[in-house]
Amino acid sequence: MTGTLFREDTGEGDPTLVLLHGFAGSHRVWEHVRRALPTGLRILAYDLPGHGRSLDCPGAGKAKATAQAVIDDLEARGIGRFHMAGHSFGGAVAVLAAHLAPHAVASLALFAPGGFGREIAGDLMVARAQAGTDIEIAAAMQGMFGPHRTVPPESVAEAIALNAVRGQREKLVEIAALIVRDGNQGVFPAGMLENLTMPVHLAWGALDSVLPPRQAARAPGSFTLHHLEGAGHMLPEERPEAVARIIARSIGAV
User: Please, which of 107, 147, 200, 233 could form a disulfide with 208 given CB 3.0 to 4.6 Å?
Assistant: First the structure.
């Protein structure tokens, strides 16, 4: 492990798409989404600080520091303009990245993002962070997907592999404590959301058990909203084709 930010860089050409996963995830949660996206994209899927191959990267659990780390990495690679998609905590990071570098972010696709309301199922996040055995990890994953959907075996396998990394479980406990404080999460000021001038697509699963879908009502009128019936919180893994279509629409809106 190193203190550098890991990203999987695939595809060639223009435009560039940046993918940011949620709590206790990695770049691999986007695998099926990437397969469903249009060809001709350069795609950078990150392991955010404190996760996977970025386990020792500074700023774990701090959305603004994470956003800055992603922006700095893209600048170092000479990528000055890009589209961005984020899920859950990664969605909050994407909003902050667009706030910090508005001229660099061409569009946003947000999937059940953090920061749109105080309510959050912190108990589910703590259970996922503290899960130690394979059975506990599978049960925690089921809680985050919700009772309506059986967790895909590959998603459970990825979560188990992530936890097998030395120090990962302890880091997830630390991150969960930063995201959830006194049973709530932080909320973006309304003005910050209203000041986003790039096209923004916001999607929420109607059966989200982690972040209530009613939080989408706080979105500015300029956002394009997508309500995914029958879907829970883990949208990139539950509905990869729908997620890919929304991302493609957000890119096409520019």
Answer: 233
